[in-house]
Amino acid sequence: MRKCVLLGLSFLLASCAVGPDYERPSVETGERFRMAEAPADAPSLANLPWWELLRDDQLQGFINIALAENKDLQRAAAVVDEFQARALLAKSDFLPGMTASGNAPSFGRKSIFLFPGFANPFNYYLQGNISWELDIWGRIRRSNEAARADLLAKEENRRAVVLQLVSGVAESYFNLLQFDAQLDIAKRTLQSWEESVRIAQARLKQGLTSRLDTDQFEAERAHAAARAAELERQMVQAENQLSILLGRKPFAIPRGRPLSEQVVPPEVPAGLPSDLLQRRPDLLDAEQQLAAATARIGAAKAERFPKISLTGLLGAASPQLSKLFTDPASFGVGGAGFAGPLLSGPVLGYQQEAIEAQAKQALAQYEKTVLTAFREVEDALVAVRTASAQNEAQQAQVNALQSALRLAELRYKGGLANYLDVLVARRNLFEAELAVTGSRRLQLVSVIQLYKALGGGWSPDMERTKDIKE
Known about the structure:
Number of strands: 4
CATH class of the domain at 32-95 and 156-305 and 361-469: Mainly Alpha
Helix content: 55-70%
CATH superfamily of the domain at 32-95 and 156-305 and 361-469: Outer membrane efflux proteins (OEP)
Radius of gyration: 37 Å
Oligomer: single chain
Strand content: 5-15%
């Protein structure tokens, strides 16, 4: 038995795993992003922890709540635990399989076949079996490679959920602040229209204006009231959306800094394009899925080769319980087992072809994910570049329209202009003020989208991935 074990170990050490070894596909990344303004060697925005990027204390508290209570993240963590157990299960195939059995004919016997040392239903016996497959062709090793890659893929998917959650909470919070600002503008505008209607009605009674002027002002007041109601609905719905991200039923969301006081980073360097391959969790997820598919090719190929196992049997059997542990009652045997496919060879060949096709699918998905990642970074970079200029231009427009409205109101009250000047000026100012809050939100959200597109920064949960890889 000892010689068989040593022989098996020597075969195992000398054997090599069949099938292709995984290598990361070559990807053309370039030296810098097309829309990047900062030098490529500048520290990337993604190196910042999210709590240094998002400076609102209330928002930081919401993100911490979401990381602890969000249901999608809890599900992703449970999936990682599942594949952790599957990886340990695959690793157990390296160990010998051992079983034990016994028999006690306590209810009487009607047979004379009561030979000691022979396990049968009519004897008392205890026996143990051992079987150890020699992984000569690497089937078990390839299966373990696949299981480990599956585990890493699920962990990267969990990290992707974390990054999506952080950015999702931030964007929802900024959306909420935008609705707050727009609702405040709508209410202020509504009050202005109330004053205009009051003045128009007074002038109508004095015969200084026509009924048409008053009707137009009342129509604009109704329009502002409708927009205020719409914005209030959107604000409550934004609160409900953020509540779900926090893993809680809808509730009134407390605010921190208003939209106009949120901090926008002065510079948002993207860093090296090649860093995406190391940082973005969705890319790492797709790569690990490709690695798992590649390893399964080797496992499928090894199934077409004979399996060699070391087997052993040891026990004791006797018709009398008192003589079960005597020398004549003991028995044992050891040897090598051999099993190979005969008529199932074509079936195993088709199975290998199917797995190879799955690997091609995983490769195409990885390459598509890489292209999508670069597009998202470039989209976010151009949004960051243009959002600031857009906000400045719209703010200048608001300032000019405020001045125009003041002049129009003075001229209208002095009888030097008609109602159309005031109506057009106030309507244009209302829309411009709403637009400037949108561009301010776009400034903040574009930075968050760039942060997400670059793969995000360090967070405590990333230590878990490090531990798995080690």
